[in-house]
Amino acid sequence: MLPPPSLPGLDTRHSRLLSVPGRGADAGAHRTWHFLDSGAHLDEHGASPAGTILAVHGNPTWSYLWRAAVAESARRAAEGAPAWRVIAVDQLEMGYSERTGMHRPLAQRVQDLAGFTAALGLEGPVVTLGHDWGGVVSLGWAIDHAAELAGVSLLNTAVHHPEGVPIPAPLRVAGARGMLAASTVHTTAFLDTTLALASPRLDDAVRDAYRAPYADAARRAGIGGFVADIPVDARHESFAELERIAEGVAALTVPALMLWGPRDPIFSDRYLDDLATRLPHADVHRFEGAGHLVAEDRPYTDAVFAWLDERVAVGVDAVAPSAAASDTDFRPIWRGLEARADDDDSAVIDMARGGAAEPLRVSWRQLNERVRQLASGLAAMGVRPGDRVSLLVPPGPTLSAIVYACLRLGAVVVVADAGLGVKGLTRAVRGAWPDVIIGEVPGLTAARVLGWPGLRISTARLPRVSAAALGVATCLADVAALGRGAPLPPAPAADDPAAILFTSGSTGPAKGVAYTHGQLAALRDVLAAHFEVTAETGLVTGFAPFALLGPALGTRSATPDMDVSAPRTLTARAVAAAVRASDARMVFLSPAAVLNVVATADALTADDRAALARVEAFLSTGAPVGQGLLEAIGALMPNASAHTPYGMTECLLVTDVTLDQIRDGAAAPDRGVLVGAPIGANRVLISALDDDGRATGEPSSEPRLLGEVLVSAPHLKDRYDRLWLTDRAALRETPDASAGAGGEGRWHRTGDIGHLDARGRLWIEGRLPHVLVTSEGPLAPVGPEQDIERVDRVRRAAIVGVGPRGLQQTVAVVESLPPASRAALADPELTAAVRASTATPIVAVLVVAALPTDIRHNSKIDRTRLSAWAERTLAGERPVAP
Predict the structure, then answer these.
(1) Which single residue of 55, 169, 715, 845 could bond 522 by disulfide (Cβ 3.0 to 4.6 Å)?
(2) Based on the domain organization, do 300 and 444 belong to the same domain?
């Protein structure tokens, strides 16, 4: 029986039937299999396949799930691209394959698939592709056919379920006594519920296509059979086979790819984490917003074929180990702490925790001892190198001790800023899937309520009832007690994973950025060298990413009294108090914090001003800081050199510029914001924009070339965590091996646009998604915005485009002075002044009370949102606030 010819997206010329001798309990019978095969199209175009993708669906889908892969195989053959034959089977009892009425547990299904490939005469190299329980079956085939296997690829699936944890609720309901047949066979409830998991919703014709083979109860028996075969515990007949497959997967060395929909109520990130542990070399990509039917939710075929082109080498059946970086001259990030282990001077000062009279001070000796105890204690508890530890603790002595203990142990520190909000934090924590969570009560409460993973440890000892309610296993005091006198574990190496730091989320969902120990050490070294940090420098920081670097730099550090998740809570008096308590010579704040410090300067006392006058260096990074704001903070710290380094979570320090250099740039103005020259061994190149506004040009140092900013540095990130496609898109490989120590031609695409001047200094002109593509070519927004902001009646301006790409018209949206009472078209006088201020043609000027900015930085204008709003407003919609 073949599928009908009218199913959307399915070319029935790929549809075939094959009679297959049965195996195992089915020996002696012949069974008819339906499958999709792109082989005939490859033959038609004379394409010799590099290998075969063996695709196996789960329950209750069928080979229709893989129609896009079959079509892509045929398309690539027609275009002369490297071709892979795709064979997508309908498992017996499913799709359009034979209904045998036979009970088929997991071991039988693995044998069934082996019989099918043998009857087909399938030879290697083969890459398996599986989803749902088809993933398990495909992996069973893979471990039994090592000689033919070239790789394994998976969409949401599982090979192991932790003991003592209930199976997912939808499967419990479907498999419950009295419900199994009713929900899976007698009705279409299980089928309909599965199809409803697609996001966005499936087109009606596609839903009908999935239903087509399951028109009556007799044809749905296999759906019920699959659910009944879920091995809930060791008593189940398929448990042993699942265990065999799980153990076999851990022994696979072939290239592996896992594409995941994290919104899956069945195969959650718990199962992804288990698979990633078994296949640590796998390339992993989580499609945010996608769910169980990730093959319908996202363009998975693009990922699969890109991975095949880049990762699967025909004739190579093992993953070559990556070349380990030399540990020669590697000085771990905790070494600065150990170097002062016998020092009783203050190492970390917390202005918020000590009370009004006196801040909390922790000496180098105390901090080092605490780090050793916690590292040994965590190891004694079973925390191993590579385990992930999520930290829900504000900056201060406790966080410093935990971070350095984890680093010394070799555990991977997971840091997501509370400024992400509950939703963002949940996405981050679930994405990283930590083994351990260490937190204070608010964080542990969120972990409990929102179901975040990981063994929970509280920073303080909690009452027994509270600990039980929060699911807390122990506290730090007990961990430290366990570690007293216990040996330290072996120290990690330079190439070992060290940390996952989450981006701000201001340019999309927050991404986990993975660093090695060597890269963290390189960051410490470039910071120490460029800013001449010594043991006597002292550091006050209200900027979370750098609040932990004091011990690494071997200098005392103080965190001011503030809510670090809300930078605008920092006051000028709080900064002065922290400087006075620590005798710091360096202050590091975020731009949002600087705004409030300047705004509260009138409250400073004479003693406060005297303390700030001793500061020698001021740094602010995380978003552009204008000359006016730097001058305002400079007035509070008159003897400090004001710096605004440029960087991002992926490469925290790239360039640096001082206030004096900005003034020099203002004397010879250029387009954009001057962010300075590269620091140390860092390098910056530009990839020119083409006529469509895409960065396609070869990396260049040519002055005044507008394009995307590419950066390379010894402390450039290792990768994005479980975002293989994102990492691939952000990485620009060049043949240039002179990228600096550790660079080796690896360049990060920042998404920023700008140019280099004749002195090699970088000027930022906006973000790549915000480039306007006009009839005259690409237009960067920042230059015209700077022109417009020189108009007396304009406080801030944003340039956005309306109309079709390639013919976009330029619109200016401004915050006017005095502030507009409502969003509207600007009056004729202001419109004329704005148009006269810039050489860029402006078709319309709109005024708003406030330009929308990102939540985290409170300074980065959301031009994408503004552009959509301007388009609607100019089309005649009521001009409400954007």
Answers:
(1) 715
(2) no
CA angle in degrees (0–180, nearest 5) for 822-826-832: 160
Question: What share of the chain has pLDDT > 90, as a percent?
Answer: 73
Buried b (16+ CB within 10 A) or exposed e, 430-446: bbbbbbbbbbeeebbeb
User: Can you give the pLDDT at residue 328?
Assistant: 58
- Look at residue 621 and tell me if it is in a domain: no
Same domain, 296 and 176: no
- Answer yes or no: do 700 and 800 share one domain: no
Q: How far apart (Å, rounded) are the C-alpha atoms in residues 340 and 738?
A: 36
Quick one: pLDDT at residue 865?
87
576 inside domain? no
Are 146 and 24 found together in one domain?
yes
What CATH number does residue 495 fall under?
Answer: 3.40.50.980
* Location of structure tokens 């417009």: 788
Last residue of a domain, one of 185, 201, 228: 228
| Cα–Cα separations (whole angstroms), residue 128 to 62, 137, 252, 710, 720 | 16, 10, 13, 36, 25
Domain boundary among 487, 516, 545: 516
Task: Please state the three-class secondary structure of 705-765 as a single string.
Answer: CCEEEEEECCCCCCEECCEHHHHHHHEEECCCCCCCCCCCCEEEEEEEEEEECCCCCEEEE
Phi, then psi, of 388 in degrees rounded to 5: -100, 135
pLDDT of residue 542: 81
Quote the pLDDT of residue 123: 92
**Whose CA is closest to 696, among 685, 705, 708?**
708
Strand partners, 588: 541, 619
CB 120 within 8 A of CB 109: no
Examine the domain organization and report whether 809 and 692 are in the same domain.
no
pLDDT tens by residue, 617-656: 999 887 767 788 899 999 999 999 999 999 999 998 999 9
Peptide bond into 125 cis (omega under 30): yes
Contact partners, residue 877, CB within 8 Å, separation at least 6: none
Q: Which CATH number does the domain housing residue 817 bear? A: 3.30.300.30
Residue 636: inside a domain: no
**What does the pLDDT look like over 323-379, one tens digit per residue?**
334 455 789 999 889 899 999 999 999 998 755 568 899 999 999 999 999 999 999
If asked whether residues 491 and 351 sit together in one domain, one would say yes
CA 724/CA 286 separation, integer angstroms: 8
118 lies in the same domain as 174 = no
* Calpha distance 449→446 (Å, rounded): 5
Bridge partners (DSSP) listed for residue 515: 499
Residue 24 C-alpha from the chain's centroid: 45
Give the angle subtended at the CA of 580 by the CAs of 576 and 581, to the nearest 5°.
Answer: 120
Q: What is the pLDDT of residue 322?
A: 40
Q: What is the pLDDT of residue 176?
A: 62
In a domain, 536, yes or no: no
Q: Which two tokens mark 167?
A: 């199976």
> SS3 of 105, please?
coil
Q: What pLDDT score does 314 carry?
A: 47
Say if residue 282 is in the same domain as residue 366.
no
| CB atoms inside a 10 Å sphere around CB 321 | 8
Q: Which residue has the tokens 């490469």?
A: 651
E strand segments, 277-318? 283-286
Give the C-alpha separation, 128 to 52, whole Å: 8
Domain region containing 421: 335-516
**β-pairing, 777-779 with 149-155?**
unpaired
* Cβ-contact 457, 438 below 8 angstroms: yes
Residues 6+ apart with CB under 8 A from 243: 160
The phi-psi region of residue 190 (left if phi > 0; otherwise alpha if psi is between -120 and 50; otherwise beta) is alpha
Check the CA dihedral 606-608-610-613 and report its sign.
negative
CATH number at residue 112: 3.40.50.1820
How many structural domains comprise the chain? 5
pLDDT score at 736: 52
